[in-house]
Every structure is written in C-alpha cells, then in structure tokens.
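To: structure subgroup
Subject: Chain for Friday's discussion

All,

I'm putting the inputs and outputs inline so they're searchable in the archive.
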Amino acid sequence: MSELSNHKRPPSRFLRSKRGVAGLVIIICISLTALFAPWLAPHDPLEQHLLERRHPPSIQHPMGLDELGRDNLSRVIYGARLSLWVGVTCIFLAVTAGSLLGAVAGYRGGWLDSLIMGLMDVMLAFPTLLLAIAVVVVLGRGLTNVVYALAFTALPTCARLMRISVLATKEKEYILAARAIGASAGRLLWRHILPDSLTPMLVQATVGIGTAILEAAGLSFLGLGAQPPTPEWGAMLGQGRGAVFAAPHIVLFPGLAIMLTVLGFNLLGDGLRDISDPRLGF
C-alpha cells in the first residue's frame, strides 16, 4: 500500500510547492500566449516599416521596432510558438528513444547493457552544444534539424536515467513475485517496470524542455536554426546583436522571453522533484 500511495500523491502536495506553482503559472501564461498569438499580436510579425527601423518602445509599439521596422511585441508573441514547439518536440523524441534504450539496457544487462551505455558515454564525452552544431552541419540548417540535433544530444541523459530507475525497480518484491509466477519479460517491462520508473524521467523532461529552448535559441543565434524572417527568439537576438548599444530594446525583449520561459520550466521541474521525493515534507 505504501508504494501505491507514493504513486497517487494528491494535487494539494504540488500546490504546497511555491516554486512548482510559480513555474506552472509561467508556463501556462506562455502557452496561452503561443496558442492565441494571432489574436494577441497587435501587428503582423513580418510587416516592415523601414523608415521607422529601430524605433524605441512607444504606445503603438510597446516593445519598439527591430532593425527592419518590424513590431517586436508581435514577433516575441509568435516566437513563443516556435520555442515551445522546439522544446517539447525534441524532449519528447529524446525521452521516448532514451527510455527504450535505457529500459532494455537496465533490464537485460550483460553485453547489451555495456554496448548501449558505452555508446551513451561516448556521446556524453562531447560538449552538448558542439555535438548539436555537428549534427546540424550534417543535416543542414533549419529549425526542424535543430530539433533532431537537440533530441540526439539529450538522448544519453535520458537513457542513463531510465537505466538507473529500471535497475532499482526490477529488484522490488512485486517484480520478483511476478517473475516467479511466470510473467514474461515484455509484460514485466512494459506493464510494471517502466510505469514505476517514469517519475524521475518526468522531472528530467520538464527541466530538459527549458534547456532545449535555451540551446535552440543559441543555435538560431549562430544562424543554424530558424532562418529569416521567421520570428524566433534566438534568431531575433542574432539579427539584432549589431544594434545592442544603439537600440538595446531589439535584443532585450527576446532575451527576457527566453529567460522567463526557461525559468518557468526549471521551477516546474523543481516542484515536481520536491513532491516526488518522500524525504521532503510537504
């Protein structure tokens, strides 16, 4: 019964985590902004007013105009769509593939475990951003290829985390009892071990989305991700870096959007970690 109660923690336990609630509120606000971008954006994010380029914030343009006279507020609002899509998609791919690899390695053990974890260790030996750049160079520029590259770089962490969880779970009494009565390896893995190992993966995925958004912005800043005139936060920083002193508002607001989004996912991940740890009293 104690293990079952650990799986069914009441929502009130999460609500007691101030960091988790704050992160959830931030993510909900940003998600709603992305969802209703066509109605919230006051202007077309691609419309140019070259005679008013670099115009500072005003009542008509609260975040000013960029180096091509495009409304910064509208571009930041539409950029939320791309950033959330990149973060969620790449982490979904990494968690899916990493969970499968880690579960197989942890449950089977032996040479298969050594082979899979050896490959993951080799990937972890490379700096994440450098490895992502190498993958993008091979695949070609573009936001879709950035998603694949970031999913590839996040794969080892997800696989190792799932392997550790499976190694701990497969020795529990109810798993040993199910194995003793003849449950197949596939049933044990998919019906019992994997669901019991998903809690730490959920925390990792939440924090990983923020990290992926930050890294995608970095690749776009370098010109490897979103291509002009796509309104993406990292690309906006890259396109406006030449005017950072003459018109700081061009890079200020996309930078704040990135910071706030990453902060929201980090806080939400901290909250989920706190409620999943029985040693922390809530």
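Points worth raising on Friday:
Residues 12-37+65-276 form a domain with the MetI-like fold fold (CATH 1.10.3720.10).
The first helix runs from residue 2 to 7.

D.
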